[in-house]
Amino acid sequence: MFASRRLSQLVLCSTFIAGCLGYAWDAPVAGSCTNYYYSYDFGCNYAEAYYPCSYANQPFLGSLFECIGSYAKDEAEKIEGYNYIIFLATYGGYDYTLDDVYTMIDNSTKYMKTAEDAANLTIVNFPFAPDRETILWNRKIYYQMTKFAKIDTKWLGWGLIFFWVVVIACATVVNVNRRYLKIPVPRKVSQAVRKHLTYPSTVRYFPSLFPTRLHSIVICLFLIQTTLSSAIGYNFMLPNPYLTDKLFIMYVIQHRTGMFSLYMFPLLIFFSIRNNPLVYFSGLSYSDYMTYHKVTAIVMTIEALIHSIVWTAYVYVEGDAALLMEDAYWKWGVVATCLAGVMITHSLKLFRQYAYETFLFFHNVMGILFIAAIWMHLNDLGYRGFVWALLATWCLDRVARIFRICLSGGLQKMEIEMCDADVMKITFKKPRYMQYYPGSYLFISFLRPWYSAWQFHPFTTISSPVEDGDSLTLYVKVKKGITKSLSKLKFDENNKMTVRALVEGPYGSRVHSCDPEEEFIGIAGGLGISGVLPALFDYIDKIPSSAKVSMITASQDKNKLDSESTSVNTGSSDPTHNSSLFWIINDVRHLNWLNSTLNYLTENGCKVTVLLSKRNAEESTDASFVQTIKYSVRYADGRPDIGTLIESCLLTKIKNRLSFYTCGSDSFNDTMRDEIARKIEVGSNVELSHYAEAYVW
């Protein structure tokens, strides 16, 4: 399965690169010649089917081919110029070949005249050679314009892609060193980077787009490069024979911004797909890539909007607006720009949180319509290679997802248990070919209710040692949408039922494996415990059995609900503990469905502390259950102060290397990062690391 997954991901990479290369541009000599002869009337005009008329006109074609043959710098450019005219003729419905071209050249040579002969004619009805000085000037300007479009814009556009190549390459180097090479980094350097870059939040109240300072620096550098790339390289010789001087800058700006929006396409789709091979190689999470997906989507939309506005203003000033608005490419360009704007607007966090399933459905539908609109917009303009790259990558991702579902055994039988009114426990047998690892998550489609079968929802996966070894467990909070619908189904007398579901996965990067030389500290809020437990189980498995100290002999006063305690202090340092877990909950009933797991952790040397933020415990827990508790349960009088909690962990530490594993809401994870960053002292012997499991996108 591992090899198959890597193969499918590499195919996606190849498609992405190959598709981006597939666009063409006409030969400079052909552009120079066509522009020269467009200023003469060969009996055709734009309003009366210009292409069908002009590209059947033998004097016009003979003049073009004479010009191309005389002023092409070599045989290759001459053939390229002929092929470009053949391509333009297809707009008129003509399918010429090179043999037809040579026949027309032989025929026109017999009647060839000079530019002076055609200078004073209203309608030209014979082929003629161009004025040498004019065509050489046209050619010089056209080479400059070609350099702007084919070289400068092309490489500046590739530079935007290369920016992300560098970012991902740097992340990959760090990830490979962390996972395999393990080359030590100077302590002061790592502490300074964590304290000032990777941990602190940039904007506390707008974390979804700028989660950390490092994210913000990367995003700002990308925005700066995009702005500079859009603003440089507009040095042209004037007068320009192709455009009036006052409108020339408008034309080149719309071209540059339109092309840059196309260069965002591969990044846009590659950052958003589930089967992204870069997640594995770089170590960046899917949440990180979704952050960059949002940024590239905004940049693409802004560039496309500038392109549309400037091009609209240009054609209005030129006086061609009414005529061009009849063209299909214009109409589809407007549709694509509007769709991009709507997709950006409805992707705001406000709408995603309110109705995520609805958001995801319409986002995918509008994405498909956007691709179709861009395809039609580029029908006569070229550059479809970008759309092919986007479309092929999107389709291959869907194929890979179906492949993963098949490897996961197709339909699975899942047992759902209502632990309490707010939490469901889902258990199913681990598929034969599914490779579980700490930090993995699955997308699941429940076939009940039937109308929700098209939805795939992500859930953190747990392989618990207190459960059946061949089973996987999911803890799910009942909210809106599918979880609410499942909770309303009919359960048996044991609050259980069985449903069929499709399983897709696993996804996600393997969580950092904590070494026995480090002290593991897990802090989870509510159902965030699902994100911390896999890493904690992995850590406990590494501890030699002889080193695991049972906590069963703890004093009886700790094996009950401590209704008097209001502090989050963890107590004095105890060298018998090899790890600590703090679980912050607001309902003591949560202990009922996780009690056996918490007792298991306690028995294996983990100091477990449950912090209750509400004083309703006595009403919900009977005395017999209290006697089974082997861990500490404390009241926090509201949400505990994270800074105080971390400070108490530092005061009671038993090792100088502390790894904090956290999972909770957006604000919870942001607060954890900020508080840990504040506690890091550059140059200190104490090393603090933070690993957040955050499934936010």
TrEMBL record:
What SUPFAM superfamilies does its record include? Riboflavin synthase domain-like (SSF63380)
Keywords of the record, alphabetical order, are:
Cell membrane, Electron transport, FAD, Flavoprotein, Ion transport, Membrane, Oxidoreductase, Signal, Transmembrane, Transmembrane helix, Transport
Give the top-level enzyme category. oxidoreductase
Q: In the UniProt record, does the keyword Ribosomal protein occur?
A: no
Q: Which residues form the signal peptide?
A: 1-22
What membrane topology is annotated for this entry?
Multi-pass membrane protein
Give me any GO biological process, just one.
Answer: copper ion import
An example GO CC term for this entry is: plasma membrane
Q: What Gene3D superfamilies has UniProt attached to this entry?
A: Nucleotide-binding domain of ferredoxin-NADP reductase (FNR) module, Translation factors
Q: What is its EC number?
A: 1.16.1.9
Please list the residue ranges annotated as the FAD-binding FR-type domain: 392-513
- Where located? Cell membrane
Q: Which GO terms describe its molecular function?
A: ferric-chelate reductase (NADPH) activity
Membrane-crossing ranges are 155-177, 214-237, 257-274, 295-317, 329-348, 355-375
Reactions catalysed, semicolon-separated, are: 2 a Fe(II)-siderophore + NADP(+) + H(+) = 2 a Fe(III)-siderophore + NADPH
Q: Which domain of life is it from?
A: Eukaryota
Which CDD domains does this entry report, sorted A to Z?
NOX_Duox_like_FAD_NADP
Stated family: Belongs to the ferric reductase (FRE) family.
Could you tell me which PANTHER family the record lists for this protein?
Answer: FERRIC/CUPRIC REDUCTASE TRANSMEMBRANE COMPONENT, FERRIC_CUPRIC REDUCTASE TRANSMEMBRANE COMPONENT 1
Q: In its UniProt entry, what is this protein called?
A: ferric-chelate reductase (NADPH)
Organism (species):
Kuraishia capsulata CBS 1993
